[in-house]
Structures are given as structure tokens and as C-alpha cells.
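S.,

As promised, the D-xylitol-5-phosphate run. Input:
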Amino acid sequence: MSEPSSRVQKTIAAMRGVRPSILPSLLLCDFANLEKEVRLLEEAGVDCLHLDVMDGNFVPNISYGMPIVSAIRKVTDLTLDVHLMIRDPNTYASQFVDAGADLITFHIEALPRPSDLLAKIRSQGVAAGLAINPSTEMSHLLPWVGECDLVLVMSVEAGFGGQAFNPIALERLSELRKANGPDLLLEVDGGVNLKTVGQCTASGADLLVVGSAIFREADYCQAMTRLRREMQI
Ligand code: DX5
Ligand code: ZN
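Predicted complex:
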């Protein structure tokens, strides 16, 4: 096995080994104290951080880019899951590989023929996946699922934290799980909280991205404990 593919396999095996797992989305965190935030999440027993990259073009919001990903890489060994909400993933994905991503997802809406980029990311030793918005027909995604290490089912339209969960994600998770068996990693993102997290795991989600339900709480550890309790199936 060549080096990049064994690194991908290692990442995927690690994520399969901890599922279901809650991935904090660092969108609402205290950016003036990023290292401290990461430590608090490590202390809360987090396995993987979800990093939301927005370009103000694919989505009507701007978050952060490569410098924040590499700054986080320098202070933690946690798995870094980078969610690219950008118009041109082809041009920028490699820069997120260099910044230290372990998993990269980009949107099928941004690149309707994703095979080459999925393969390129994997050839660089990083697990690759596709994300799909609730408003996009699943027929756009399905032909490519076999080429993905993970599929990210959005439960809000990409762009902002704090939106309400769209239950269409539950149907999509169940369908994907049924059609692909237990090996495919399924991720859900948007409006995942104490009320919805259990429904997501019951529908087959492995990786549960949570923003406001952690970062709007004073105690991340307690927030994680409560979410974990609700997601047990
Ligand atoms: C939405 C982002 C999410 C989001 C999660 O575009 O991809 O990661 O910030 O935040 P909550 O949990 O607040 O919906
Ligand atoms: Zn996200």
C-alpha cells in the first residue's frame, strides 16, 4: 500500500472506530483564544474538529481559510475535518491539504463532476467526501458516492450556524446507509442539537457536526456529555 492511501485508510479507520462521534464546528468559537478553545474541546473528549470554510461566493458568508486551519493543526493532534463551502474547490483543496486537513469535503453544487478532485485529494493522503445541500436533488450526488470516503448530508443550507434542522436529512441518511452498508462514513451538519442528535444517529449518521449547541453553552464538557447521552441508540 502506498503512503498516501495508507494515511487515508488510517484516518477512515480511526473515524469508524469512534462512531458515532460529535464534531464541534469552530464557527462560533472564541477566535481570540483559539488554542484555549481547542484545549477545552480536547478535555471534553472530542475526537475530531469540523472546520467550516466559507468564501462569500458559494455561500453568502465568509468565515476563515488556510491560516486558521494550519494554526489549529499546530496546536492539536485531533483529526481535522475541513468542510469547503467555496465556489472553486479545484483551485484551493490542495492548500487545505498543506494546511493539515485529514478529511476534506466539498460541495457537489460547486463541482458537479467531482471524480478528479476526489482522487486528487486522496492521492495527497487526505480522505475525501462530498457534501450536499437540502435543496439539491440527491440524483446529483448518487453517481459519485462510490468514490467518496464520506458523505456530508447538510441539514441546513450551507452558510450560517444556528439554523433550524431540516428533517429531509434524516431520509437521506437512511437511504444512503441502506444503499451503501456500514462502511461509508455518513456525516450530518446543521441544526444538530439535543433534540435532533438522536434522530440523526438512528438514521445512520456517524459524524455529527455541532456548532451552537456546544458553543452557546458555558461548559463544553457538559454540552458534550448531554449530546452523547441523547445520541445513544
Ligand atoms: C453551516 C456549517 C455548520 C454549522 C453548524 O453552513 O457548515 O457546520 O455552522 O452549526 P449549528 O450546529 O449551529 O447549525
Ligand atoms: Zn460544516
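Residues 25, 27, 50, 52, 83, 156, 158-163, 189-192, 209-213 surround D-xylitol-5-phosphate (ligand 1) (CB under 6 Å). The mean pLDDT is 97.

- D.
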